[in-house]
């Protein structure tokens, strides 16, 4: 019997650093940065959008090998099925099933194709860990219930005021020249999505720390990049030697084969892991107050201040036994 495929699933809300973290992790031996695999069927197979290497996905030699093991003729149907199964309105039922010890996302005939996807990725890349930055908690719950999967959840959290500001920026889905824009929800919707997805992530996996769940604030990651990445690698069971860091806060990135994500996944060469505090200056007082009120419970849980520029509380990480206490900086990179 083949060993299970270890999947490091990046969970939480969008614009919390998942693309940068995935890309950096993919520079280590034995790790494959797969990107947002829940989009493989639609954006990769149906729309033939660019792989992280720059080629259209169906032209990428690596994905060509993986695709031979998949029912690509059913990609559109599988994508539609996932959209229907993972709708937000199904969250109450999902959480009830989880509390009762049942499978959170009911089984479906397409699950065999999903399981084959992760098996094929591990087989053709030789990876010991497949990094999936799909973020959506219901999809993570679905993946964790697939046969042959060993799921470990990395919960990335970012200040909700920063994420709301980031979502409002105009950005092409695959770069500045792409006429199709990434989603731009209003600040109130971005705040509610932040609260829902981060709360659901904790509900589903928070009790699995320290072996199955690790929470990392991206503010702490940018304040202390290499030690934080080493902690993540240790959690994933990966040797941290020989990584991409060329300085305390600079990485040299080689191309990955990520399926989807923030367009920054295409960056290569020296890349700074830097803080971006523009939201502190440019997010309006009304938007700041609205997001703060809507996410108040999450701010308290994850150690974020109410006041603009206020100090962050210590203990923002879970499953690690330590955090970058007292250091809270806004995220740079505007990641997925």
UniProtKB/TrEMBL annotation:
Keywords: Transferase. GO terms for biological process: N-acetylglucosamine metabolic process; sulfur compound metabolic process. PANTHER family: CARBOHYDRATE SULFOTRANSFERASE, LD35051P-RELATED. Residues 320-336 have a biased composition (Low complexity). It holds the Pfam family Sulfotransfer_3. Gene3D superfamilies: P-loop containing nucleotide triphosphate hydrolases. Residues 310-336 are annotated as: Disordered. The keyword Transferase applies. This is Sulfotransferase family protein. Transmembrane segments: none annotated. InterPro entries: Gal/GlcNAc/GalNAc_ST, P-loop_NTPase. It comes from the Bacteria. It comes from Micromonospora rifamycinica. GO terms for molecular function: N-acetylglucosamine 6-O-sulfotransferase activity. SUPFAM superfamilies: P-loop containing nucleoside triphosphate hydrolases (SSF52540).
